[in-house]
Amino acid sequence: MDLGIAGRTALVCGASKGLGLGCAEALVREGVNVVVVARGAEVLNAAAAQLEALAAGVANKPFVKAVAADITTPEGRAAAFAAHADYDIVVTNAGGPPPGDFRDWDREAWIKAVDANMLTPIELIKATVDGMAARGYGRIVNITSSSVKAPIDILGLSNGARSGLTGFVAGVARTPIAAKGVTINNLLPGAFDTDRLKGTMAGAAKKTGQDVEVLRAARQKNIPAGRFGTAEEFGAVCAFLCSLQAGYITGQNVLTDGGAYPGTY
Ligand SMILES: NC(=O)c1ccc[n+]([C@@H]2O[C@H](COP(=O)([O-])OP(=O)(O)OC[C@H]3O[C@@H](n4cnc5c(N)ncnc54)[C@H](OP(=O)(O)O)[C@@H]3O)[C@@H](O)[C@H]2O)c1
């Protein structure tokens, strides 16, 4: 299916690896120009080279720009907008907060989590939606987490900060920008086999003294699909939410979790 977005330009945050890179790849395959952001320049430049190789085989040869910056800072966001001003698509993403016990989290830990996983997406929405509305097309996809629907106790910082973003998005997506071709949706990953998941599984193995492969197998057994998801699958859903065809989907929380969330709604 042609998603009708070739020639559009996307800002994809947290895109040097994992789910963000999966989204950037899917958008490039659709002919979308991408500006990819991550802090570590080396991994980011390697990812950008990979995306450029992909773009060379796409009919309209979309451009790829890499911006090594921390998207949670005003300077980082300024660098992203210096690379391109009028984004048609924005994928918000940054690393998730660390797991732990809420008794150990002080104000600073909370401010950091809220900054990365709530206020940064809000700043990016604020900076782009009015321009998108004036031009008649816009797609914002916030990478959040299935923990928004089914909280995970040790991920309290994520549960809390992302719920704040979810509430904000539910309101702003339904303001008059909705009638001007702008959609805002949250894409909720369950368990995807990225470095983040590998890190949390390795941490759990160390803590419990169990073999990491045993833990991975047990976790996958609890997912109805029987496996972890791939960044490619996640990226494909993101590209669809950015498509012309998805123009009537807004203010939604779209789960991609292999059926792990057990509820009907
Ligand atoms: N994978 C899963 O199973 C899963 C499940 C639920 C939720 N999530 C959430 O989905 C998001 C993406 O996860 P992932 O698995 O793709 O993680 P990942 O593999 O660790 O990749 C995170 C990406 O974000 C970049 N990043 C982190 N902090 C950044 C910042 N401040 N500014 C700019 N870029 C930043 C990282 O590069 P640098 O470090 O170089 O900046 C990297 O490119 C996270 O918020 C995570 O909590 C993931």
Furnish the topology, listing elements before pairings.
Blueprint: E1 9-13, H1 18-29, E2 33-38, H2 41-56, E3 64-68, H3 74-83, E4 89-92, H4 107-135, E5 138-143, H5 156-172, E6 182-189, H6 195-208, H7 212-221, H8 231-241, E7 253-256
Parallel strand pairs: 1-2, 1-4, 2-3, 4-5, 5-6, 6-7
Helix pairs in contact: 1-2, 1-8, 4-5
The structure holds NADP nicotinamide-adenine-dinucleotide phosphate (NAP).
Give unreliable regions as ranges: none
Count of individual beta strands: 7
Distance between the termini: 28 Å
Counting H and I runs of at least 4 residues, what is the number of helices?
8
Kindly estimate the percentage of residues that lie in beta strands according to DSSP. Answer: 5-15%
List keywords for this structure.
265 residues; alpha/beta; seven-stranded parallel β-sheet; 8 helices; binds NADP nicotinamide-adenine-dinucleotide phosphate
Describe this structure in words.
- The two termini are 28 Å apart.
- Strands 3-2-1-4-5-6-7 form a 7-stranded parallel beta sheet, sandwiched between helices.
- It is built from 8 helices and 7 strands.
- α1 (18-29) crosses α8 (231-241).
- The protein has helices spanning 18-29, 41-56, 74-83, 107-135, 156-172, 195-208, 212-221, 231-241, and strands at 9-13, 33-38, 64-68, 89-92, 138-143, 182-189, 253-256.
- With 265 residues, the protein is α/β, with parallel strands linked by helices.
- The mean pLDDT is 97.
- α2 (41-56) links the parallel β2 and β3 (64-68).
- Residues 13-20, 37-40, 43, 70-72, 93-96, 116, 143, 145, 189, 191-192, 194-197 line the site of NADP nicotinamide-adenine-dinucleotide phosphate.
- NADP nicotinamide-adenine-dinucleotide phosphate (NAP) binds at residues 13-20, 37-40, 43, 70-72, 93-96, 116, 143, 145, 189, 191-192, 194-197.
